[in-house]
Design brief:
Layout: H1 3-14, E1 21-30, E2 42-43, E3 45-58, E4 63-68, E5 77-80, H2 94-105, E6 114-120, H3 130-145, H4 152-165, H5 174-181, E7 186-191, E8 196-201, E9 207-213, H6 221-240, H7 253-259, H8 266-290, H9 294-310, H10 317-328, E10 333-337, E11 344-350, H11 354-369, E12 374-378, E13 385-386
Parallel strand pairs: 4-6
Antiparallel strand pairs: 1-3, 1-13, 2-7, 3-6, 4-5, 7-8, 9-11, 9-12, 10-11
The structure holds alpha-D-galactopyranose.
Keywords: ATP-binding, Carbohydrate metabolism, Coiled coil, Cytoplasm, Galactose metabolism, Kinase, Magnesium, Metal-binding, Nucleotide-binding, Transferase
Family: Belongs to the GHMP kinase family. GalK subfamily.
EC number: 2.7.1.6
Length: about 375
Amino acid sequence: MNLENLIRDFSEVFKTDEGIHVFFAPGRVNLIGEHTDYNGGHVFPCAINFGTYAIARKREDSKVKVISKNFEELGVIEFNINDLVYREEDNWANYPKGIIKTFKDARYNIDSGLEILFFGNIPNGAGLSSSASIELATSIALKSLFNLNLLMIEMVELSQKSENQFNGVKCGIMDQFACGMGRKDHAILLDTNKMRYEYVPIKLDGISIVIANTNKHRDLMDSKYNERRSECENALRALQEKLEIFSLGDLSEEEFEENKHLIKNEIERKRAKHAVYENQRTIKAVRALTEGDIEKFGRLMNESHISLRDDYEVTGIELDTLVEAAWRNGAIGSRMTGAGFGGCTVSLVRNDEIESFIEKIGEEYERRIGYKADFYIVSIGDGARRI
Ligand code: GLA
């Protein structure tokens, strides 16, 4: 990716490069703690060195014009700061539009239009938070261009609100948090119940984070995601008949085992089991990591995948094929990452094995699934920023 080319593209489209600023918001990979963020549990994501660039400038009038190099065929999408409604035909542009609307609704003074050219070097919709990275890139651009007095954590919360209310996706806070608050060479242990967080240094001596993209087309993902949420809510309500708890994240494994009979629906019981065990597993995994026990961290990643496969049922043949092949080919740990139903896996792999790892898993995947997976070796980067 070459910034000069992006700036040149901007001036070709918008006929000027006067007053432009460049912003970047990363994607994220979650190392462990999946489907726990809307259950009052812990997550352990990090920002990555791939994400979304935004070249932006203010306009004199009230028009907003946006273009994405990832959806060039859709051309410039135009709307007005005084008419910010969700429109199907505006496609991806509903993300930046939602951010502008959410900022305005929160009384931040956005008193003119703007032009933004986006370019993302993370695959769209593959579970690496391409949408949260667009949201945070837009947020940081608005803050800077309109001199808004906003903390990063506030932009994170507004971005989640925008995705929940404007785009209708009931996501938790993890993705926006990681894309906004990420720190180079650290993962973030976030307790979504108390909204407390801690940066944990990730020193992977001779080991790399390898992401594999299933390239599976994910349909109905949002509705399956929302279905898992309501199954967990039902399970929580059943437990609350007897227990004074506010979320599944309040329970230890033992407390869950003693009380799981209260959840009459078998599927809901399995979903709750995952949420409780995954939360505890995340705490154990971070402890192992800080004690320098990467092998144990890896085993807990594997257990996380099994729980997501068998109890939460959000994996599928594509993710399982990649992960099971990774286990057989020397990964220290491997699991699906993100919402699931397709998307990506994350594996810890020894540097001197990466080449053969990618080759073997890539071959096996293509043979079994019929199309190719993509692999990325990522490093842990900083959160959203002006560059
Ligand atoms: C998606 C959501 C997150 C989180 C993960 C699953 O990425 O946006 O809030 O729930 O799925 O862990």
